């Protein structure tokens, strides 16, 4: 230690303490500086004891944030004001490393928390990402510090093992042959959908990966079939694959907003007559607008009849599989070819954490086929057998499974099942409340935790219904007590709540209705006056 300090006169912090004092008595000494370091502040930025102090500052703020149950939505700030506020927090030092400034850190974290979407407040009912289980954030923090990119076993051993374990644990609810299915994690449901479609395309058109579109001469054009309410990421994935909008076959929905299997057949026949070869059918388990579950069992029959790959976009709703009460919504899941499952939605972990499952392991290798000898070993051994790099798009990938696995390891399945069941029950309760309110219009019976409705008080003209809902939603957002979303259901906009927070009760929902009425009545008065 002494020798080190004498060679490195810079290792002193602004408060006069020496950053490496914490190492006294430790078994290994800090690295010897070569004399090229310009400033001890570079060493300080990596100092372990300072790291703990910084973390404690931040954790105290997060504790306060998590303990704040006040009802609040979004504090929407003018971006120009926020840019100024953020700039004011930046060091003006250009030449030297600026010393750590605790006040700056505190102010950055305060601004970050305050301007964010308040997912932990009972006022938050608007979107599909959730207030995470705090412990999962703690594990994510570990991931950020140890920084183990997880596409390759040698870089991230425990994350790769945890993926294997979580795949087995969750497959218990899917029901595939444990020896032949596969799972890969990927950065978000959108990328998972793209990856699955790519694998489906490569299976149906084996020459495509090497020859590109020219492999198709003389063949029918590749096409996919989707329910009319499919998530936009699927249309984007098609675009990325060179499947034009005109090659996306939209299947009609029934009155429960599910793909109508009977009406799907003639639509698929008509597509074939137009020169399309539909190779993949995308079903949704929890559609984004209303949370509807397509009838997987029947669709699996249709897919078998026509040799279609059946992909299920369960980004939102696959998590219902872990609940004994709700699993039946995905009846037939064991017959599908692939499944997208976002843990950062209904498993309450930090984003992104998406699991892409394949019934057949070989298909998991079918999405990407290039050789890259610097990472992919031709002869897998026990270590490289766990690599996921061949199956996912990312090269450097977050060890996103760790927060999920740690929650599962420490609390078990019931943590997830109980929260999901509460949220779905709550959504059913608030639907019943709405049915008793004559000035509100209900639009569907909730299948999960998403509910759409409209405020239609007497005096509202039919031609104003759409704009009225949009304007109510915006005003509620700007008032900042509740955060809800809007979506078109049929021809007109509807108000949409997504129950992701178990601290929300039906009392909070009644308060929301009160606010909608007040805002809506103001709006009606204004339009009558201006008319
Ligand atoms: C959220 C969602 C997606 C997109 O997933 P990301 O993880 O946000 O990329 C896709 N499909 C459905 C049904 C979704 O709810």
From TrEMBL:
Cofactor(s) of this protein: pyridoxal 5'-phosphate
Q: What InterPro entries does this protein's entry cite?
A: PyrdxlP-dep_de-COase (IPR002129), PyrdxlP-dep_Trfase (IPR015424), PyrdxlP-dep_Trfase_major (IPR015421)
User: Which SUPFAM superfamilies does UniProt cross-reference here?
Assistant: PLP-dependent transferases
The protein in question is named Amino acid decarboxylase
Region labeled Disordered — which residues?
Answer: 1-34
**Family membership:** Belongs to the group II decarboxylase family.
Keyword set, alphabetical order: Decarboxylase, Lyase, Pyridoxal phosphate
